[in-house]
């Protein structure tokens, strides 16, 4: 399954993939700070809010993908992972049964949980 490139879609359902992950019988959900965003006073404001501040999360996670049995679970986790930031995400995800995670950081690093280490999850050229 292709993971959609982290660029605003402008409402279009057609977008290139930045990575792919092999999956069967699971739900794959991705959230990112690149959708539902705008620039104000030179700063990008997005729709994923930090519950501690009530403001858009200041994070180094551009895109968080969760693979789980149920979409409802995966969706809740993706938002939380973005708020956590990359340093905490992998530790949290490794300790949470039933989920695997793929992250793209703002520095273009692709990170994944150990359950996906043997899988061919990789950045695609282009």
Overview of the structural elements:
The structure is a single chain. The protein is of the alpha+beta class and 126 residues long. The protein has a single domain, classed as T-fold (Roll). The protein is built from 2 helices and 11 strands; from the N terminus they run E-E-E-E-E-E-E-E-H-H-E-E-E. It has helices spanning 71-84, 86-95, and strands at 2-4, 17-20, 27-32, 37-40, 43-46, 49-50, 55-56, 61-68, 100-105, 110-112, 122-123. The strands form 4 sheets. Strands 3-8-9-10 form a 4-stranded antiparallel sheet. The longest helix has 14 residues, at 71-84. It is globular and about 45 Å long.
Quick summary:
The chain has two helices and eleven strands.
Number of E-state strands: 11
CATH architecture: Roll
Largest sheet: 4 strands, antiparallel
Helix content bin: 10-25%
Question: Distance N terminus to C terminus?
Answer: 17 Å
The shape, in one word, is globular
Q: In what range is the share of β-strand residues?
A: 25-35%
Give the CATH class: Alpha Beta
Write out the strand line-up for the largest beta sheet, numbering strands in chain order.
3-8-9-10
CATH topology: T-fold
Unreliable residue runs: none
CATH superfamily heading: ApbE-like domains
Secondary structure: elements and pairs:
Layout: E1 2-4, E2 17-20, E3 27-32, E4 37-40, E5 43-46, E6 49-50, E7 55-56, E8 61-68, H1 71-84, H2 86-95, E9 100-105, E10 110-112, E11 122-123
Antiparallel strand pairs: 1-2, 2-11, 3-8, 4-5, 6-7, 8-9, 9-10
């Amino acid at each position: 399954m292709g993971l959609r490139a982290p660029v605003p879609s402008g409402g279009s359902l057609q977008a290139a993939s930045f990575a792919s992950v092999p999956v069967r019988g699971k739900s794959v959900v991705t959230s990112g700070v690149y959708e539902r965003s705008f620039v104000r006073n030179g700063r990008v404001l997005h729709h994923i809010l930090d519950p501690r501040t009530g403001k858009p999360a200041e994070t180094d996670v551009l895109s968080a993908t969760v693979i789980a049995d149920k979409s409802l679970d995966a969706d809740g986790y993706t938002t939380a992972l973005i708020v956590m930031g990359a340093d905490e995400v992998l530790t949290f995800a490794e300790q949470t049964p039933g989920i695997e995670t793929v992250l793209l950081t703002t520095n273009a690093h692709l990170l994944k949980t150990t359950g996906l280490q043997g899988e061919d999850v990789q950045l695609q050229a282009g």
